[in-house]
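FORM 7B: Structural annotation worksheet

SECTION A. Query
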Amino acid sequence: MKKALFAGALLGVSLFLAGCGKKYANGEVVVYNWGEYINEEVIDMFEKEYDIKVVYDEFTENEDMYPIIKTGAVNYDVICPSDYMINRMIQEDMLYELNLDNIPNYKNIDKTYLQSAEEFDPGNKYSVPYCWGTLGILYNRTMVEEPVTSWSAIFDEHYSGNILMMDSVRDGMGIALKYLGYSMNTADENQLEEAKQLLVSQRPLVQGYFVDEVRNKMIGNEAAIGVIYSGEAIYTQRENSDLVYVVPDEGSNVWIDSWAIPKNAKNKENAEKWIDFMCRGDIALLNFEEITYSTPNTAAREMIKDEDIKNSTIAFPGRDILDRCESYRYLTTDVEAMYMKKWNEMKVSN
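SECTION B. Predicted structure
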């Protein structure tokens, strides 16, 4: 699930052993996924259909998952990292190239999202999109005078004390960079310093820096404007009809979480069976309905019965929106440290 990047959360693992005590003719598959990021019914369905035992673990951050895979502390067969982490793992030769002959349901993945995934997985050789979304502005139409179309709204003194920012290094710095006309993946220190100074000037206007709390605060009319992920925005609009979500004209981040197979996996063929199963239209629909984050699966989208969701530009933005968005890429440890330094300097500024 989309979380704050570079957050120093402790490792959170929840072990789920499906079908304990039962004999499985075709072995097992060991899965490592985000917490609360699957419909558990599909795990049972997979086991029954393939006669493969699923060992299912959960992680809370990409940064928690990475060292487990890097060191081989646990031999996971299939994992679900985010875009920039997949990019890093490809660069470090940590992932198997997928055999798409074993993943025929790959055909259900919309080429629009495969095109976006090319930014972190050139040629789409190592990963298959599972869930995705955008980063944007959520605003309350009863508290904002004009429709919001630009990131300039979160730097507007008129809304001082009514702005909720994302407590995330890459998201926070990325917003400032986009507003200034730069790439969210820049490694230029001068551009990063300019972005930091913009955020320093904004800081007195901000009510607070949050992640999950933005959702509830906006639902409760505690702020006029908040930075939020699209999946959360869909939920908030169900709870408060005055809330509007937009991807600003300057552009933003499109994030993608994808299935991949580590090179220390012991059950690669079973992992490809798992990925193929997740790409099946009915299975992707079950997962979408459970977790509400957007599915890249065209077959699943066709099966959605709620026409408002099926045609939602929040859940399924068109090419016009995606073309002005970027996926995060891995920027090397030195550049990541520079981002963190600038962000921390902003957070302690007066």
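SECTION C. Observations
The chain has a mean pLDDT of 92. The CA atoms of residues 60 and 82 lie 12 Å apart.

SECTION D. Sign-off
Analyst initials: ____
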